[in-house]
Design a protein that fits this description.
Blueprint: E1 5-7, E2 10-12, E3 16-18, H1 27-35, E4 41-42, E5 58-60, E6 65-67, H2 76-83, E7 95-99, H3 103-113, E8 119-123, H4 131-142, E9 149-153, H5 160-170, E10 174-177, E11 181-184, E12 187-188, E13 193-194, E14 203-206, H6 211-224, E15 229-233, H7 239-248, E16 252-255, H8 257-262, H9 266-280, H10 286-290, E17 306-307, H11 317-321, E18 327-330, E19 332-335, H12 345-349, E20 355-356
Parallel strand pairs: 3-16, 4-7, 7-8, 8-9, 9-10, 10-15, 15-16
Antiparallel strand pairs: 1-2, 5-6, 6-14, 11-14, 12-13, 17-20, 18-19
Helix pairs in contact: 3-4, 4-5, 5-6, 7-9
This protein binds flavin mononucleotide.
Length: 364
Amino acid sequence: MKLQTSFDGLVLQNPLMPASGPLVGDAEKLLFLQNAGCGALVTKTISVQLPIIPKPCIFGAKDYVMNSELWSEHPYTMWVEEFLPQMKRFKDRPLIVSVGYSKEDMEVLIPLLDPFADAFEVSTHYVGTDLNVISAIVKTIRSHTKKPIYMKISPHIPNPEAFAHAIQDAGANGIVAINSLGPTMHIDVSSRQIQYSNQSGYVWMSGPAIKPIALATIYKIKQAVPSLTVIGVGGIQSAEDVIEFLLAGASAVQMLSAALLKGKGLYQKIIDQLPKTLEKFGFDSIEHVKNTVLHNPFEFKGVVPTLIEDLCVQCMLCKEVCPYHAITFNDIITIDEQRCFRCGLCVSKCPTKALVGSYSEGRL
Ligand SMILES: Cc1cc2nc3c(=O)[nH]c(=O)nc-3n(C[C@H](O)[C@H](O)[C@H](O)COP(=O)(O)O)c2cc1C
């Protein structure tokens, strides 16, 4: 199975890389993920000023993470003199250096980091939403490097399509979508405290719960500017998720929070599972997924779901969740066609896939 993929002159052994964050915070951590087989590496965001990070700063829930961590706690000089020179360079495992934030920061950072970088990822998390400011940052970076530039978009940027046009016009190659979502908040009822927050009481949210926002942002950007490269990130936790992001329009993907929740071994596990998962869904390579056109079977009609009795374990979840009181049980599950709103909720919730249909054509 061919997992290799390429874009903007970069060749990746496979499409999975770590997202910028604590798991790529120094050379030792980067080398761990290089040995785990990641298709590319991304550093923690390096900046000129040192951050003052509140502690504790990472909260793990079942399907999301909240954090108030900022950028790299290490000075950029340590990255240039100590961490980056230790990195082994491979032709098919590019090193993407993440930098932030202002154009003045870029004047200092890019010339020093350029010899170590195969590409740059640029966090716009703390620079506001003014596209003129963001364009000026791109232009400054472009004046110091010929390498690919990927601007990272935060979910609080109001218009991803306008962001996409602006950064392409300024000379960037693509977008990393998306950064963590915020502001969000975590409250501990017992202690009556806001926890894990910054001084304003807010945290950033990431992990599987934000996946639908990431997918929609990638799709929006690709619809608006098809020639831009998009690196997808936000909520990935499985090989199937990787395929989903590529179908939405990503050229490669990044993951962080799921590995914080499930352990650092998740990178290798997903890479190992990619060939079988591709095969399961009828793909023969990563490029095959990327060249597949995504369909939207949107319609107003819908169908009443059909029950496959052999698969039904009579758990009654469909009856419980049906918002239209259309499902009854009397020895077998019955769906009242008059009451059924064709909403599809029961089909999506059935744990044994005993309910099928929702669209007139094609099984849901
Ligand atoms: C603890 C933590 C630290 C992070 N630090 C950075 C950072 O330094 N730079 C950056 O661009 N994104 C940072 N992020 C955002 C991630 O790179 C990523 O965009 C986001 O978490 C969504 O992906 P995920 O759901 O796979 O974690 C951080 C996220 C977390 C949870």
